[in-house]
Amino acid sequence: MNKDDQDHVFDDDKLKEECGVFAVFGHGDAATLTALGLHALQHRGQEATGIVSHDGTDFFAHRALGLVDKAFGDAETIIRLRGHAAIGHNRYATTGEGSVRNIQPLFADLSFGGFAIAHNGNLTNAHTLRMELVNKGALFQSTTDTEVILHLMAVSQKKAVQERLIDALARIEGAYSLVACCHDQVIGVRDPLGFRPLVLGRLGPAYILASETCALDIIGADFVRDIEPGEMVVIDEKGMRSTHPFAGRPSRFCVFEYIYFARPDSALDGRSVYESRKKIGAELAREAPCPDADVVVPVPDSGVPAAIGYAEASGLPFELGIIRNHYVGRTFIEPTDQIRHLGVKLKHNANRAYIEGKKIVLVDDSIVRGTTSKKIVEMLRAAGAKEVHMRISSPPTAHSCFYGIDTPSTTELLANRMNVSDIREYIGVDSLSYISIDGLYKAMGEAGRDSDNPAFCDACFTGDYPVALTDHTSNCSGSRVTDLRERVTRRT
């Protein structure tokens, strides 16, 4: 069993969320608001969390492994995070080991003073830059790619903080939505292609930055707008200033945010996530109908909106034929071989009254390794399902992501080594259909996928990587880089 199986024995076989960021400027309870915002963004990272605050003179920090409520549930912890400015981060490791030294926000004392930064995304040339910096004498304190930005700022010849950050980011390749705090100001930046979300809000006179709008809702803040791809906003006591320091390019926002990652009650780039998932499900019903079925059943929870859309478009009844236990954690019980075998049953249970004797349309958002899908189908058949027809609200996930989503190696992705017919046989369903790539774009309001100028990043489906994978195609050494380079080699 690999480490991922050990760590996530009770988790769904899904791609893993990236990270979540949150920032406040101009509020006396900045740290409290940040903790609440991070709680709303918990789905984007459950490994670790941290907050750095600033009171105009000093910085204060608290970081911890685990969930937000555990890290910041003690009132004394929040009281120590003084100040009217704060930034926070929820981590799911896409680079760097899972340890305390990698918990963000990272902080450094640079020549101009203290600087804290939190990053959602993944830098595809971080190892190359890291080796260059190390060879020049840089001493790294973490193994996360985010620290490269701090070192690039440290050696920049620019004077102003914002200019140093721009200078550093000009050398960066990959995906980033980041927030930073320094000199009594908060900064937000989004990469030129806008892979990852970042939104701006207001709470009275205070400004808020967050990965998703659901984090604004929890503190009662008003949504103002999305931070644009390539935009930098600087917030201080004078207000907010916006610049676009990077050359404008067509956005390539991650389409998987709409399919799975973002919370359904969020709105990203002007689209409701919940409504988008319903539309994808409806398009899937048009592309892959199952007219003889009796009922549409989602794989909870992420498959629910698409299943609703499928049911509405097909005229079939929708039922919660699978009930999810939300209280099974990674350390619920010692994961012996016998308990691992029961893992899916501990997290999902068939609602037999709505399964027995029925022809089921089972709707899920994706199939990654296929292990959980296979066990859920077995569970439905054991509950008396007459037929099981699976419908997937994304195209086959056949390629690894290098832009901030933790995906298995390419060879572990079922769709990379099997065609649809083979996958159908492997997971044991009577029929299997995925939404087409053009159908996905149509559901998202596009005419189809423009191969010369696609509206989204869909590399995990198409293998079309819009930003260079420098680390993964170079001759760099290092186990992480070698592993990722092998993924691309295997793909091609």
TrEMBL record:
Listed Gene3D superfamilies: 3.40.50.2020, Glutamine Phosphoribosylpyrophosphate, subunit 1, domain 1
Q: Which UniProt keywords apply?
A: 4Fe-4S, Glutamine amidotransferase, Glycosyltransferase, Iron, Iron-sulfur, Magnesium, Metal-binding, Purine biosynthesis, Transferase
Source organism's superkingdom? Bacteria
Reported function: Catalyzes the formation of phosphoribosylamine from phosphoribosylpyrophosphate (PRPP) and glutamine.
Pathway info: Purine metabolism; IMP biosynthesis via de novo pathway; N(1)-(5-phospho-D-ribosyl)glycinamide from 5-phospho-alpha-D-ribose 1-diphosphate: step 1/2
Glutamine amidotransferase type-2 domain location, by residue?
19-238
| EC class | transferase
The active site is formed by: C19 (nucleophile)
Sites where the protein binds Mg(2+): S302, D364, D365
- Keyword Magnesium among record annotations: yes
Q: A biological process (GO) annotation for this entry?
A: purine nucleobase biosynthetic process
Spell out the protein name for this chain.
Answer: Amidophosphoribosyltransferase
Q: What GO MF annotations does this protein's record show?
A: 4 iron, 4 sulfur cluster binding; amidophosphoribosyltransferase activity; magnesium ion binding
Residues the entry annotates as binding [4Fe-4S] cluster: C254, C401, C457, C460
Family per similarity comment: In the C-terminal section; belongs to the purine/pyrimidine phosphoribosyltransferase family.
> Species name for this entry?
Micavibrio aeruginosavorus
